[in-house]
Specification:
heterotrimer; A alpha/beta; B alpha/beta; C alpha/beta; A: alpha/beta; Rossmann fold; seven-stranded parallel sheet; 11 helices; globular; B: alpha/beta; five-stranded parallel sheet; 5 strands; 18% strand
Amino acid sequence: MDVLREFEQHNPRALARAISRAEAGRGGELVRALYAKAGRATTVGLTGPPGVGKSTLASALVRDARARGKRVGVVSVDPSSPFSHGALLGDRIRLAEHFTDDAVFIRSMASRGHLGGLAGATADAVLLMDAFGFDLVLIETVGVGQSEVAIAELAQTTIVALQPGSGDSIQVLKAGIMEIADIFVVNKADHPMADQLRREIRSMMEMQHWSGWVPELVATQALEGKGIDELVAAIERHALYLNETGELERRRRDAFTHQVRQLALGRMERRLDRALEAQPRNGLDPYEAADRIVTELGLDG
Amino acid sequence: MADRPLRIVIAKAGLDGHDRGAKVIARALRDAGMEVIYTGLFQTPEQIVQTAIQEDADGIGLSILSGAHMTLFPLVVEQLRSQDASDIVFFGGGTIPAEDARRLKELGVREIFTPGAPLQEIIDFVERECGKRRALAS
Amino acid sequence: MALREPRDRPKIIDRPAGRWARKGPGAGALDRTISDVPLKTVYGPADVAGLNLPEPGEYPYTRGIHRNGYRDRLWTMRQFAGFGTAAQTNERYHFLLEHGQHGLSVAFDMPTLMGYDSDALQARGEVGKCGVAIDSLADMEILFDGIDMGDITTSMTINGPACIALAQYVAAAEKKGISRAKLGGTIQADILKEYIAQKEWIFPPRPHMRIIVDMIAFCTREMPKWNTISISGYHIREAGSTAAQELAFTLADGFAYVEACMAAGMDVDEFAPRLSFFFNSHIDFFEEIAKFRAARRIWGKHLREKYGARNPRSWQLRFHTQTAGCSATAQQPENNIVRVAYEAMAAVLGGTQSLHTNSMDEVLALPTEKSVEIALRTQQVLAYETNVTNVVDPLGGSYFVEALTDEMERQAEAYFAQIADYGGVIEAIEAGFFQREIAEASYRYQRSIETHDRIIVGVNAFAHEEAEPIDLLKITEETERAQARAVQDVRANRDADAAARSLERLQAACRDPKDNLMPHLIDCVNAYCTEGEIVEAMAAVYGRYTERAVL
């Protein structure tokens, strides 16, 4: 299959294969050809610890977007097995009602085993969905660690979902999630400890200095569809803020710079590794060795 | 191409909720290094095939224990055909009498595993058949 | 017939005992029960230090709930049956009753169990396959045609739409002039284990708990001979759990129902005497016996001490047993007859009140009449020839069985503590706790078969080169078409206004937690509303459940 031609003819199998190539670290050619078509989609990141109902929230957001005639892409990043490169990806289940909707495309990704790095593969997948013509691209990740932060940075708006009565949620708050959240969602808001969680989020926010956007806090019961309108409204307010303040352009620039940096760094690392492997540089002190190799590779100055 | 793991959709169709076998197979394929996309219960043939397409799966494994296999397996084969996706390796398992298994294989189901089939046999099958498909596709 | 030796371990045939006998304690599967409980070579007084056994018929009933065991009353032989249309199953019921079976046990097909009518899109390929299709009162009337519903007892294995099936049963009997107060039997209605293991749910857990409380309250008031709920570990075990998990999760479900009824203002002694249980009897002989004994003891203690029940009937755990479907093999199916016999004996030595023995071919298809007969005969041989029925709890006091009983209780209590940490059974379901524990256990078990740490005769050892075909019962496509036509006829020929009005009243009752749903359901059924229509009406108020993936 000529993936690029089929992609341009809007064949979903071509999009699926294009994403596979990106996952294998071979997405460059396609991204180059399709880059100009991207940049129209709204991108929303959704992260939080396991079990807080992220997939249910995602499903509710998809439903809302579909009701307003938008086409939606979802990238769902699931953890891989720590013992093998294999992965069990089960987050689609909550999205089952959208499986046969032509205007919804869902792709699961494992969090490990990407030659170009997870963030790189996800960035390509989002770009490809954008270029394919989706109006909204949702990026769903589990947990809040380094890689999730990197993924969150891909999105224009990042939602951090938490749930009451869960130790994980408190840990997430303490782990410095403040910086990446544009919107906090307290899901399962009918839980007796929901108010307490809200208070904790507020008090953590008070300890920060905010310039510009102050994260909003939305209470939802995603299973019952409660609070979704409010969440959508908050996303729209954030989008408006990004547009009006020029922040959107700045974020795009940052994300672009970030990706360029990642791609360049990856290549440089591989060159460096090859050079080191080829010539171990015994007998030199590490500073001298580093000086020489940087010079050899033409990276000094 | 071994630059990324095989991707396999493990699916439960129809109304039967016996997911013990499906989950055991899913884990075994995972431990063999594959990326396994589990659809959850009660999927229609249409949903299963859409999932396989969007996930760019190399194979679909369908588990049915309710006796509806002679209806649901052919529907998946038909869907794959109509979506121009018959290259995806479609295999299945469940309480399927030998005679039915033969008929299903004639219809285009690549292999039927019945209760007691060793996990390793299933893993070997998936690696071999889906590996061949990968080699052809790229 | 050529014998194939076990894969990679040809020694087993040469020296069957060698590999196992050489192993030291704790090293291999034979040093452990099928549920991974470590076993010693021999047990002695030190293993049962402080053992204080009650007499049979005495609290906490470790040794049984009856003083004279089976001498006073044999267990009920109850074979689960149902397939195709109501008329086909009715014929099988007449056959079973003529051959000496004591009670009936209805197996419904998947669409009925999931709340869909036979002509629904979701039902395609499934009608009449795993059981009988019952769409409306019309089918229930045919199912019990020529059977005296006031004389037999009936067990109905249905959960999501159990309240509808019960309403249909009551309505069918009353149309024959038999009052509901005379009806004896059991309806499974155990929804919690559906979320945990069997996955035949319709509504979300919280609203469904209200349905169950309504059913229990209704039966307590109007059906004094009916066992309101059968709290089931069978399906938890079939999903791959260990014996201890089956025990713990089932009893935890039981406690959850007790708490729900008490929270609704019922007195524990009003309803607890008519709660009953349903366990699996797997192939690990002594472990199963220990599990049954531990179940009685735990239930007794909790009901008396924790829930404050004063009526001894409330403390007594009564249970039905079915031999383990998951222990049966598709290979050399005749071997299953032997497995079933051992499993049945474990259930009887464990003191079961009723028993279903699986047919040898159930792993392949619905059982044939011949294999059903062998299964029933297996129970009759056990009851009338082996003489195991003459002495109550014959293994009581065995160092090994008592130690294993204690171990089962200890593991169950540890699980209760974990469940409490989640905040209760529903919370633990929502967190995927049970599902994860079971998935882990079933994967461990499957691995042990793969590695030949565990031998399954005819599967990973002593296998034949080729399978010999056996006769199987087939359900035709025609069944599905006929049943779909029948339900359409029912809808066309009833009083449409009366049906619609009854559904509206049901919906109003769903919104009003003070109004018991059962009388409204009986009205709907009498108006010939179909099961699918009733479920649809209720789901409009309660919503439908979806599971999060637990892998």
